[in-house]
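Q: I have two molecules that I believe assemble together. Could you output structure tokens for the complex as a whole instead of separate predictions?
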Amino acid sequence: EDQVTQSPEALRLQEGESSSLNCSYTVSGLRGLFWYRQDPGKGPEFLFTLYSAGEEKEKERLKATLTKKESFLHITAPKPEDSATYLCAVQAPHLLQGKLIFGQGTELSVKP
Amino acid sequence: GAGVSQSPSNKVTEKGKDVELRCDPISGHTALYWYRQSLGQGLEFLIYFQGNSAPDKSGLPSDRFSAERTGGSVSTLTIQRTQQEDSAVYLCASSSPGDIQYFGAGTRLSVL
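A: Yes, here they are, computed for all two components at once.
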């Protein structure tokens, strides 16, 4: 069964305290792994797409990495404005084109 | 440029009433998706439209749910005889085929 599991469910950091969010996936062949950010009352906002193991992408304080079983979202020296829920999702060839399977998200809170 | 637009942003209804939720995708995007986000749950796929092809309705939870897309653009998700368990945020996304999905802000549905 296709499954995406994110951990931890919630993470509280002090400003400047670096950490990582985990996304473990079980899917028959990975077409792509997606990271989104969701602020309260808003829709998910696209961050990154990763396609193959070993791939890395960076954007400001965020860096996403991918292995054959999981992805990490590393947050370096976070700021309060990084507080949000981070969602991970996967696409697979046997799923209809574009269908995403989402994890339940990690709620990140960064305190000043 | 305009993103995905959803209306209404909030909808409160009584159990047993019908509701219609609207999604206006990004201009030029031929793929349109509906997802549901319940409290404490990840995003759940509902239905997918691609161009003028018949929609994939495999994610619709019951026959009370239906959706249409007129002229390959605007989509309406209809829930008949609403139940309390239908309370959730309904999110719409659009994309070019197989490309990144961009989400609207969602409609928060509350069934009393």
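A: One point stands out. The longest strand of chain A covers residues 19-26.
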